[in-house]
Amino acid sequence: MKNSLYSIKEINSLFDRLFPLNRSILGEGYRKSLEILCEYIPFNLLSYPTGKQVLNWKIPKEWVIHEAFIEDLDNNRIIDFKDNNLYVVNYSQPIDEVIPLDELKKHIFVSPHLEDAVPYTTSYYKDNWGFCMTQKQLLSMKNKNYHACIKSEFTDGRLVNGECLLEGESKKEILITAYLCHPSMANNELSGPIVQAMLYQRIKNWKQRRFSYRFLINPETIGSIAYISDHYESIKANTFAGLVLTCLGGLQDTFRLKKSRKEDSPFDLLVDRINDGTYSDFWEDNTPQDKRHIRVENFDPSCGSDERQYCSTGLNLPISQIARKVYGSYPEYHTSLDNKDLMGMESLVDSCNKLERLLLLHEKEKYYQNNYPNGEIKLGDYALFPGVNTNGSRKDSSMNDIINNPAFIRRVMFLLNYSDGTKPLSYIARRLGCSSSDLQGVADILEEKGLIQIIK
Prior knowledge:
This protein is an alpha/beta fold.
């Protein structure tokens, strides 16, 4: 790792190097972008050749574009790919023809709500060709013939993912993943990889890591599917929790968490504890009370990012998605107006700060495993349950104040039942209406008696 991301100047520099590159799901622009990011995270590169079967998908051919433009017959250029790589539908087939405007319009895409925006349009898996432009540009075109030229080709190539592991005391892993495939977009593309790189550098410098942290970057959808296809057993066995990073710029005060399909992943539960005030120290002291809330939405497989793959029916990993200026909720989404000014470098720093605090809070969470999970434990054998049960009350002849306390017995039984390695002590305490410190005393007793053990 050669470069750091601890100042706005450094973050700006990385953004400016990445933004102009013509990224797609495969291709030179993607590989160059990944090469740049490797200066900040030492990714191990995983390669998947064209034609490789990954689950029920196949790695497509690589799109190579050399030139593209629309011009009138007097050689006046209307749009030129070298001026804006959104001017061409990503993965367009080649064409070089003179076409009347009415016919050409069938292959021109504009943003219906923003007259000055060029939309981002793709056709990865169906043969097609097309151009994108602003409404103003389209309206300026006269009803005559135009020369439409796209010089592109499709070759056998390779899809490339990057992964890097920061080992901790435990082999249980936190997956931190982002996508890299959208050209010339800021919030909906570069915010994820840049914040991911910032987080990597923060976590690497922690004095102690309880969990291991796996960083993964890939072209959206097909990249995560390829990774799952080749690493199904290992990610199923090792992934304790995870976050998909997307749309982390913008002026919104805080995050939106999209829950995992399980809807009780470690980060789902942790955000619940932040929102109910259990972890009020998540917020900076100057955060107003009415801003101390992370918006939460349930899992939705019809939209979003790579959490759809990690939360698919068979895999069903505890992976949540975290965003700020959420995709689809702002008019500039998937257009040329999703730029640096819209996103803001300061927002990336704030997002990284909040995510680091979230991860540090999770580092402190305690998870226990019941050593006798099949049926209730005979607690009387451990001097943890009264010997007499009559008329709705329980009392032990020893008059032991602890085990004659109904609240204590309730805490014991809750803690044993919920100690499945996935529910933290803070969650169980909240269910009981007590503090984590009060419940910790009960956990210490059960651990001393060999009934539970802490998950490491």
